Amino acid sequence: MAIDRVPALKRCRALGIEPAVVGLSKESKRQPRRAGKKMSEYGIQLREKQKAKFIYGVLEKPFRAYYDKAKKMPGITGENLLGLLERRLDNVVYRLGLAATRRQSRQLVSHGHILVNGKRLDIPSALVRVGDVISIKESSRANEFFKGLAESFDSLSTPAWLTVDAQNLGGTVTRFPNRDEIDVPIEEQMIIELYSR
């Protein structure tokens, strides 16, 4: 399995993303790069795609598959693409506040700590459906990480398409997200134009 080992802050700086977007509270001590040559239209489109792939932690082949799936769905392709990325299990775990970053939520899912509708699901890329209940495995709750989480669990930052069950450390997918509820700084139309070339 391919793994992206580029330091997160370095990638944020290169793509012009605030570290908070990927859940990092750190700030880079280095100065942002000075603007050099004007970027071509292709360069701008490519950068938007790289931003989306980095924020959601998706590599090229699965990202292309999401685009192909979004194109076949009714509605606007760009919005469909972001909707599919938001519905990934690792992203939903992050959005519910069960992890500080998407990388951390991916690890929690991979290590089998997360249940969907009461059944263990260890595939971070699995797409959730309306009505799915996400929770933490009973045996995992004794883990120090989850004990600390129970004390600081906050449902205020949870998007409206998810409902939080703070008592049981989990939540439910009540509907699919609208574009205005997806707060990632991505111009999805640029990605669609890139793939349409």
From TrEMBL:
GO biological process, one term: ribosomal small subunit biogenesis
A Pfam family this chain is assigned to: S4
Gene Ontology MF terms in the entry: rRNA binding; structural constituent of ribosome
InterPro entries the record matches: Ribosomal_uS4, Ribosomal_uS4_bac-type, Ribosomal_uS4_CS, Ribosomal_uS4_N, S4_RNA-bd, S4_RNA-bd_sf
Entry keywords, A to Z: Ribonucleoprotein, Ribosomal protein, RNA-binding, rRNA-binding
Domain (Small ribosomal subunit protein uS4 N-terminal): residue spans on this chain: 3-86
SUPFAM superfamilies per UniProt: Alpha-L RNA-binding motif (SSF55174)
Domain RNA-binding S4: 87-151
GO cellular component annotations of the record: small ribosomal subunit
Task of the protein: One of the primary rRNA binding proteins, it binds directly to 16S rRNA where it nucleates assembly of the body of the 30S subunit.
Family: Belongs to the universal ribosomal protein uS4 family.
Subunit structure, interactors included: Part of the 30S ribosomal subunit. Contacts protein S5. The interaction surface between S4 and S5 is involved in control of translational fidelity.
Protein name listed in UniProt: Small ribosomal subunit protein uS4
The species this protein was found in: Selenobaculum gibii
Taxonomic placement: Bacteria, Bacillati, Bacillota, Negativicutes, Selenomonadales
